[in-house]
Automatic annotation (TrEMBL), chain A:
Classification via Pfam families: Ras
SUPFAM superfamilies recorded: P-loop containing nucleoside triphosphate hydrolases
Localization (cell): Endomembrane system
Gene Ontology terms: cellular component: cytoplasm; endomembrane system
Span list, region Disordered: 179-201
Lineage: Eukaryota, Metazoa, Ecdysozoa, Arthropoda, Hexapoda
GO molecular function annotations of the record: GTP binding; GTPase activity
Main location (coarse class): membrane
Top-level division of the source organism's lineage: Eukaryota
Membrane topology according to the record: Lipid-anchor
UniProt similarity note: Belongs to the small GTPase superfamily. Rab family.
Protein name per the record: Ras-related protein Rab-10
Listed Basic and acidic residues bias regions: 179-192
Assigned keywords, A-Z: GTP-binding, Lipoprotein, Membrane, Nucleotide-binding, Prenylation
From TrEMBL, chain B:
One GO cellular component term: cytosol
Ubl conjugation among keywords: no
Protein name: Uncharacterized protein
Organism of this sequence: Psylliodes chrysocephalus
Keywords per UniProt: Guanine-nucleotide releasing factor, Protein transport, Transport
Amino acid sequence: MAKKTYDLLFKLLLIGDSGVGKTCILFRFSDDAFTTTFISTIGIDFKIKTVELRGKKIKLQIWDTAGQERFHTITTSYYRGAMGIMLVYDITNEKSFENIVKWLRNIDEHANEDVEKMILGNKCDMTDKRTVSKERGETIAREHSIRFMETSAKANINIERAFSELAEAILIKTAGKEPGDPVDRVTVDRRPTNTSKSCCN
Amino acid sequence: MPDCSENYEKEISDGKNARNIKCKYCNSVILTPSTAAFTSFEFQLPLIRQSKINEQNPETENVSLFWAVTDMFTFQNVGFSNTVGNNKYLTCADCEAGPIGYHDLSNKMSYVALSRVIHS
Ligand SMILES: Nc1nc2c(ncn2[C@@H]2O[C@H](COP(=O)(O)OP(=O)(O)O)[C@@H](O)[C@H]2O)c(=O)[nH]1
Ligand SMILES: [Mg+2]
């Protein structure tokens, strides 16, 4: 067995109506030089990113839907093992905001009950087209005791921050628990890492 | 065009990558030192830029030098494409440049092409 180079692994999902910007949040805003390449035609399934929080090296495995949300057919298999969910709406699309409640119900039904959630009001760069105020976003988040942030995948506002806050919330939640819990949580080597060895920028 | 193996000799130490493996385009760290094993075999890897988009039949080049990674979570930052045949292609997690290699679903191994990344 190869030695693990990380302390924890968190599986994160992006959920929300079609068109709110989930794919762009995960894979950058896609009007750059690589969009006409081989990769952009096949599409990306998931991404692995490494973050360091509280001295722990954490691997985030972040999944995009394969467009199933269009048919409202997101099911248990997509949610399996998820420890964090980014629930996204579009601040220029009232309907996508109203559907947040539906998605929350879907999550309750299919996801692990202690899954950590965060609501993102995306496309906050489009101020002139805004129809959902920031206050409404904050209110719904408060009502459900969920974190909230406005983001822009296009202008790269709050994207990294959102992921590290979600990861941090999961970390706090996980901290009190013993490894080997009978959940889908991927429990890996919990030995302290030798941080002095880390040499990434 | 065959890879020129001599260029890479100093990158291999004890069979592993001596330095960080990074994206050629945006410098994102893909693998940290000593986490991937050098290996050599022939594979037809699709070109990053295709002159015309043809999913079934992409333009490829013969690549023969790879960094082999046994556990996908060894990667510092990487993207996995949707499945094509028995493989998923690997991309830079930050700028999506790729394929920088591929993941074989049958043996769960990931292979990063030395010629598609930089070492620093
Ligand atoms: N202005 C703006 N447009 C965005 C943003 N995020 C995504 N979009 C656009 O919204 C559309 C849908 O995005 P996509 O990521 O495919 O949505 P998905 O269906 O949720 O995956 C695309 O045309 C994107 O270019 C953003 O932050 N700002
Ligand atoms: Mg999408």
